[in-house]
User: Fold C-type lectin domain-containing protein from Poecilia mexicana.
Amino acid sequence: MCVFCSSHRPAQSGLGEIQIMDKRLLFVFITGAQFSVAFAQTLQYYFVNVSLDWTSAQSVCRRDYTDLATIETTADVDAVLSTASNYTGKAWIGLYDELYNSWKWSLDDSSFYGDGEYTFRNWYPGSPNDLYGPQLCVRLISVSDPLRRWDDRQCSDVRMFVCYNGTVDGTPSFVLSNVSLNWTEAQMFCRKNYVDLASIRNQTENDLISALISSADVWIGLYRDKLWSDGSLSPFQHWADGQPGSDSGVQCAATEFGSGRWYDESCSQSLPFICYKKSNVSEFYREI
Assistant:
């Protein structure tokens, strides 16, 4: 979904007045433009009042600014809202869903993974596929697949699971649960009683777990999360109630002006959007 474009500083025409309020706050008033901007922390946000699909909006932001907006704090939320005081609809931000490249292991210690091990995958043909709506967690299939491959499932499903319990003489130790839980509950159980849900770093470890599970499909520690367009790893979330949504297909995030909350929308929908640039000014406001 990434679009490579060169970045440059947009022209600033129609500059009317600059007023220094104090050392922390600068107001600039501009007329005749179709965007507004606010600073928070080190990010400068621009509201672009042109309706585009998410990928086209990303392309414009990367061409004219830095990228679609990354929002990492409640201060950022407020700064985004201040860019369009008269707009009450939704606008794209940089958070998006990626079916193939956004999978992560519950155990996120980078020292645990050797070269290529974090990205080892053993998907069943046709998976991942979001077959029944967003399927953000992964099971190892035993019942219907003798090769013990993986597929994506809804995290609310209840099943047995495998925990990682450290190493014994250099060999990873795995424990099969004797209870069935949803993925989040399984993660909590493994972290409380062992180390974490099982990471599978290679085919040897896949075979070790396969030998444990007999005929039970089990949760493993792989899950999918949305990504920021600029690669930020910020865990901050500001979803509206009931969001992210349950519609099938890849979804992108839009912020709603007024509440500042985030909503899943089809990435092909046309909406205005928020771009950002880096800034050395702590706070800034500019209005059309």
